[in-house]
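User: Hi! Is it possible to get a structure for several chains at once, not just one? Here's what I have:
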Amino acid sequence: MSKPRELNKRTLVASPYAVWVLAFTVLPLIVILQYAMTDAAGHLTFRHLFEVFSPIHVKAALFSLEIAAGCTVFCILLAYPMVIAMRHLGMKQRGFSLFIIILPMWMNFILRILAWQMILSNNGILNFLLGKIGIGPLQIANTPAAIMIGVVYDYLPYMILPIYTAIMEINEDLIEAAKDLGAGSFTVFRRVIFPLSIPGLLSGIVMVFVPSMTSFVVSDILGGGKLQLIGNVIEQEFTTGNDWHAGSGLSVSLMVFVLIGMAFTSVSKTEGKESVIW
Amino acid sequence: MVKKLKDHLARIYIGIIALILYAPIVVLIVLSFNDSRSRVTWGGFTFDWYVKLFSNRQIKEALVTTLLLALGSALIAVLVGVPGAVGIHAMKQKNYKLFMVLTNIPMLNADIVTGIALMLWFVHFIPLGFGSILLAHITFNIPYVILSVMPRLQQMNVSIYEATRDLGAGPVYSFFKIILPQLSGGIISGFFMAFTMSMDDFVITYFTKGAGVNTLSTMIYGEIRKGIKPEMYALSTLIFLIVLIILTVVNKVSGQRQKAKYHVDY
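Assistant: Yes, the chains can be modeled jointly so their relative placement is included. Here is the combined structure:
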């Protein structure tokens, strides 16, 4: 008799959070939607919501999708061997390799991207080293390749960590059993490790795709200001272009990916995203 | 033999990834000792930038702002988020789902969208400055706290709580004596996650900061065109070293604890 009522009372402790969510998550979204659906004179218009498809923006939008898709694929391809190598090594070294991945995230990311600019530029460190062995100079700086290197570098840890969490949870017995039954390493990966890592993979994709698509700092620094992602376009609408309505419209269209992300996380249960960092 | 080969391959691969991850960090550390304001030439070894760092008021201000924001927003996020998680956990299916969706919005939304939405909302009622950045940071930090506390709540043993209540303890007393200790791991990891996210944030701060206030990130971004002050490399190197030491110690301690646990287990 008393239990359900008390359970109900317990929900009340969430009220400060409920107020917070309303004030700083829901209302800002309503406000940005309001900006997106009006013009400078305050009249209702749907024009800004479809701003992405306008000829001047569609190029940046497609380029962003290309970068995001490429970044996600490269991160996946780099992360799996990394996690498997980490699992292969002993327990102690496992903690060490995790440490190696997390530590760089503590150096300011804008500075790290600037360092990549120094590494990749025409008279930079990479071309200097390549010159020593008689290759190059390669023109990487200010190309899409440079932006791709930047975003893969920036977001790789966010792909490795959730996949790491998922794969480390796999019971060693399952793998032993598969081996006993005659599965080779590749079969074990394909039939046991990979399927069990999918929740981690999905949250990795969620954590890499949208951020790499909308980042404007990486493209700003490594793209030389000429290659624009959708993030750069939005940023300029607010800082130099001063068309807040168009900028809001573009932002709102980006929220399509939030909905897709939600579909993803409802599959992968975000609750499992508890950090492995601490 | 095959096992040895695989061991080597694993080490080599981890080494290559580590090389990629650390190459830019090495560059920055080297630059912090470079006796030249130019980023491309080596002018000899110097400690000058470290000395100058301590008399640079702008950098000091930005550092203090960054730390205050990280500490304040992580603390408030814990104060709002932990009761939030406890309450959400007690909700019925429908409300539970609704709140988890709302909690996920700041995590799934692109930073640029979150930042702009908050900025458009803030300009209606508060001046953009330290206060608005703090509100923004708390907003994106609370989900990290809730998502790290929630799994602990789900694993929590409710019977102990009920037993204390049966034995006459009040709900508040039982909360502090029984529930809070069981959640402490999640709360601590949530706090540190929030702290880290706040320290690391650029985009949301950039849109909600207004003129006059700078965190380290926004200060660095503002300097990109005119050239980064080398003191900044020195500061980053110092922060990196401090975190390196802290993480090494934590790693050692938790490693020993894990070892101790294994001894108990077997």
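The CA atoms of residues 68 and 134 of chain B lie 9 Å apart. Chain B touches chain A through 96 residues (CB under 8 Å).

User: Great, thank you!
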